[in-house]
Specification:
The complex is a heterodimer. By secondary structure, chain A is α+β, with helices and mostly antiparallel strands. Chain A has 16 helices and eight strands. In chain A, the strands form three sheets. Chain A has a three-stranded antiparallel beta sheet. Chain A has a three-stranded antiparallel beta sheet with strand order 6-7-8. The longest helix of chain A has 29 residues.
C-alpha cells in the first residue's frame, strides 16, 4: 500500500506553494545532491533533482590516459564499490582483446567484488538508520565494514580503492594471512547480520518509516531503466550475474532475492538478503581457490615477472614497451556490464586501435535512480523524502562522474 | 525472437531506414538514418519487446568526417537480447527526442546535450545537467581542450595542458 498522502489536495493557488532546496549541503542527501521541492505545507507536490555538483570529468580524463592508468580513475566513481568499476573496465578491455584471465585471478576478483558489495550494503543500512536517528546501528555497521576494509587492505594495500586489477589478471596474489582473516570474517559476519536483522526488520519505527514510502513499480522501472535492488524490490529478478554471467558466476549457487512491493522496505529486505548471498558466494569461491598464476602470460598485455628482467633482454623490452606505451586493443566498440551494489554498471568502450580509449562511457546505475525521484517523491510528506532518497542508495560520485 | 530474426524482419519491411548493420563480439549494431530513427525505435519498443532503453550516449568523431554518433542501447527484458542503434548526427545538430517513448531518456538526453552539444527537439526541458549552467563549450567533443585551471596564488606558473598529447586520431 502506498503511503502517498492522497487526503491532502494540493492547493490550486500557486502562491501558497513554498519552494525549498533540499541540499546540496544536507547531511542526508548521501553526497552533494540538491532536490528542488515544491511544498504545500508539509506535502511535496513537485520535486526536481539537480545533479552535477560532483562532476569530475572522468570520462574526458580517461581519453587522455593509457589503459593501465584508467583503473585508478574509474574506481573513484562509485567509491563504495571500486572493485566493480575496475572489473567492468578490465572485462571490457579483456573481451575486446580476447584475453583469458587465469582461474585463480577470476576467483580472487569475485571475492573482492562480493566483499565490496557487502561493505556497500552495510554502509547503506548504517547511514539509512542514522538518518532515522538510530545511531547505534550505524556504529555496528561501520564496525563490521571495517573488517571488510581490512581485508581489502590485506589484498591490495588500499582500503577503499584496491586498484589491483590489471588487464589480464591481478597485480598481486593473496597474502598468507588472508585466508585465516577472511574465514574469521565469514565466521563472525552472520552474527552481525542477525543483530542488524533483529534490530531493524521488525522494528516498529523502521517499518512505519519505510513501508509504503517511495514505491517504484515495474512500469516505472522500465520507463526509467532502474536496475539492481530497485528493480528486484519491484519483483523482477534481474541480476547481471545471472543474465550475462562474468567471472564464472554461472558456476556458483546463489539466489536472486526479490520482493514484490517495490517500496523502501522491500529494497531494504533485498539488500539484507543479498549480503547473505554474497557470504555464500565467498565461501564457495574460497573452496574453489587453487594455486596458480594470477595474471595471464601474454607478454603483450601483462608485465613480465620481476625475476625475468635480470636474465632476459626480451622481458626488458616488453617491460619498457608496456610501461612507456601501454597496450593496443584492436579497433572496435563494446558494452560490458557488471552487477555493482547499486545495479547494472556498464562500460561502453570505443577503441580506435591506439593506446588510449577513444571514448569510455560509464552507464552508472545511480543516475537513473536519482532521475526517477522526480516521479516518486510528489505526494509524500517532507519527512519521507530523506527515506526515499536513501532507499535508492545513490552514490553521487557515480551519478555525476 | 532472436536478434537476427528481428533484424531480418526490419530489413524486409523498411529497406531504406537501415544504413548498415554489423555484429561484433556478440553485440549487434544497427545504423539508422534520420527518417528511420523514431519509427524504428518505437517499432522495436512496441513490437519486438525492446522495452528498456538501457543507455543513451554519444561518441564524437573528427576523422574521416566530423560527426557525432548517438548511441541507443536497447534491452529486451523478456529474453535479455540487446541491440545497439546508432545514428550519425551533424556535430551540434538536432535530433528527435525519445522522451515520449521513454520518460527516463530525458536525463540522458540532457547529458548528451551538455557534453556533446546535440539538441533534442521535443525534449521538455533541455538544459545542462552536469556542467554549470553558464559553462561555455561541450567538454566531451574531441576538439575540446582539456586544460588545467591556473591557481590564483601561483602567478607566473604556466598551466599545463594534459590533452596536448592526446587528440591523436589515427589517419586512415
Amino acid at each position: 500500500m502506498s503511503k502517498k498522502n492522497r487526503e491532502f489536495q494540493p492547493s490550486q493557488n500557486s502562491e501558497e506553494l513554498m519552494e525549498l532546496h533540499l541540499g546540496p549541503q544536507h547531511p542526508s542527501t548521501h553526497g552533494v545532491l540538491c532536490i528542488k521541492l515544491k511544498l504545500d505545507g508539509e506535502l511535496v507536490v513537485g520535486a526536481e533533482p539537480v545533479i552535477g555538483y560532483l562532476h569530475t570529468g572522468v570520462e574526458k580524463e580517461c581519453e587522455t590516459r593509457t589503459y593501465t592508468q584508467v583503473f585508478t580513475l574509474v574506481d573513484r566513481l562509485d567509491y563504495l564499490s571500486g572493485p566493480a568499476e575496475e572489473q567492468a573496465f578490465a572485462a571490457a578491455v579483456e573481451r575486446l582483446m580476447g584475453i583469458e584471465v587465469p582461474e585463480r585471478a577470476e576467483i580472487i576478483r569475485l571475492i573482492l567484488l562480493e566483499l565490496a558489495r557487502i561493505g556497500s550494503h552495510l554502509l547503506w543500512v548504517g547511514t539509512s538508520a542514522l538518518e532515522l536517528n538510530m545511531s547505534s546501528i550505524y556504529m555496528y555497521c561501520f564496525a563490521a565494514r571495517e573488517k571488510i576494509l581490512d581485508l581489502l587492505e590485506e589484498i591490495s594495500g588500499a582500503r577503499m580503492f584496491p586498484s589491483c586489477w590489471r588487464i589480464g589478471g591481478l597485480s598481486r596474489d593473496l597474502t598468507e594471512n588472508f585466508d585465516a582473516q577472511i574465514r574469521q570474517f565469514l565466521k563472525e559476519f552472520p552474527a552481525v547480520w542477525k543483530d542488524l536483522d533483529n534490530l531493524l526488520t521488525n522494528n516498529y519505527v523502521w517499518c512505519e518509516r519505510l513501508i509504503g514510502v517511495a514505491v517504484i513499480d515495474k512500469q516505472l522501472c522500465e520507463q526509467y531503466m532502474c536496475t539492481g535492488p530497485v528493480i528486484r524490490g519491484a519483483g523482477i529478478p534481474y541480476d547481471i550475474r545471472k543474465v550475462y554471467p562474468y567471472l564464472g558466476y554461472q558456476n556458483y549457487q546463489f539466489d536472486v532475492p526479490t520482493q514484490m512491493e517495490g517500496d523502501s522496505y522491500s529494497r531494504y529486505l533485498v539488500r539484507m538478503q543479498e549480503m547473505l548471498e554474497s557470504i555464500s558466494l565467498i565461501e564457495q569461491a574460497l573452496g574453489k581457490l587453487k594455486p596458480g598464476p594470477i595474471i595471464c602470460d601474454n607478454r603483450k598485455v601483462a608485465l613480465p615477472p620481476r625475476h625475468e628482467l635480470a636474465r632476459s633482454m626480451e622481458a626488458v623490452i616488453h617491460q619498457f614497451k608496456l610501461i612507456s606505451e601501454g597496450l593496443h586493443p584492436p579497433i572496435g566498440e563494446l558494452y560490458q556490464a557488471v552487477e555493482s551494489a547499486r545495479g547494472e554498471l556498464g562500460y561502453y568502450l570505443v577503441s580506435d586501435g591506439s593506446n588510449r580509449p577513444y571514448r569510455l562511457r560509464v552507464r552508472s546505475p545511480s543516475f537513473p535512480h536519482i532521475d526517477v525521484l522526480r516521479k516518486v517523491l510528489p505526494g509524500h510528506l517532507l519527512s519521507d523524502i530523506v527515506v526515499a532518497i536513501a532507499s535508492v542508495d545513490p552514490i553521487l560520485g557515480d551519478v555525476d562522474r | 525472437m532472436s536478434t537476427e530474426s528481428t533484424l531480418d524482419t526490419l530489413r524486409a519491411e523498411n529497406r531504406d531506414w537501415i544504413v548498415s548493420d554489423e555484429s561484433f563480439l556478440g553485440e549487434t549494431t544497427l545504423e539508422i538514418n534520420l527518417d528511420g530513427l523514431k519509427p524504428c525505435l518505437s517499432r522495436l519498443k512496441d513490437d519486438f519487446g525492446y522495452k528498456v532503453l538501457m543507455d543513451l550516449t554519444a561518441v564524437d568523431y573528427l576523422h574521416p568526417k566530423a560527426t557525432t554518433k548517438i548511441v541507443y542501447w536497447l534491452h529486451n527484458p523478456a529474453d535479455f537480447h540487446r541491440l545497439r542503434i546508432v545514428f550519425f548526427a551533424e556535430r551540434g545538430g538536432s535530433v528527435p527526442s525519445v522522451t515520449d517513448l521513454w520518460e527516463g531518456a530525458g536525463a540522458y538526453e540532457r547529458e548528451v546535450y551538455d557534453l556533446f552539444g546535440i539538441t533534442f527537439h521535443g525534449h521538455p526541458n533541455l538544459t545542462r545537467i552536469l556542467m554549470p549552467d553558464d559553462w561555455q563549450g561541450h567538454p566531451l567533443l574531441r576538439d575540446y581542450r582539456l586544460t588545467e585551471e591556473s591557481v590564483e596564488f601561483k602567478h607566473g606558473v604556466k598551466p599545463k595542458v594534459p590533452s596536448e598529447i592526446i587528440p591523436y586520431v589515427k589517419k586512415k
